[in-house]
Specification:
This protein is an alpha/beta fold. The chain is built from 7 helices and 5 strands. The protein has a 5-stranded parallel β-sheet. Helix 1 crosses helix 2, helix 1 crosses helix 3 and helix 3 packs antiparallel against helix 4. The protein is globular, with a radius of gyration of 14 Å.
């Protein structure tokens, strides 16, 4: 099992320059986990595609459902004190620190393309591009 941030999930489900890497990661380790926050972040990504009329309402709803299915049973609460401690130790947002906190809580790796996360938490964060 690995933790993935919202962007890695988006790379998997949307055609991007990182889609092949996200697909390779899923093949390598198909058990993905995330803090519950991922749902709101993914909805925000979907809303951008919807507002730009890049995707239809039906398409964004389908992608949201697909993402929820992929992470079903692997969504976790994180400890607020730990998240805030990670914020204190880094220049990462509280949102990003939720993903790092979960990786630490589960003692597994976090896959991301976020340079701040990669710099701040090298013991837990791995670049999607490193595959």
């Amino acid at each position: 099992m690995i933790v993935v941030d919202t962007n890695v999930l988006a790379y998997l489900l949307l055609p991007t320059a990182e889609t092949a890497n996200a697909e390779a990661l899923l093949k390598r380790d198909p058990e993905w986990a995330a803090p519950i926050l991922w749902r709101s972040e993914f909805r925000s990504v979907m809303s951008g595609y919807l507002r730009r009329k890049t995707l239809t309402f039906e398409q964004v709803c389908s992608l949201q459902a697909e993402a929820e299915s992929l992470l079903a049973g692997k969504e976790y609460e994180v400890d607020s004190k730990q998240v805030l401690d990670l914020v204190r130790q880094s220049d990462c947002s509280a949102y990003d620190c939720e993903f790092a906190a979960l990786a630490m809580q589960l003692d597994i790796k976090l896959f991301t393309m976020d340079s701040k996360l990669l710099r701040a938490f090298p013991a837990h964060a791995r670049s999607l591009a490193s595959l």
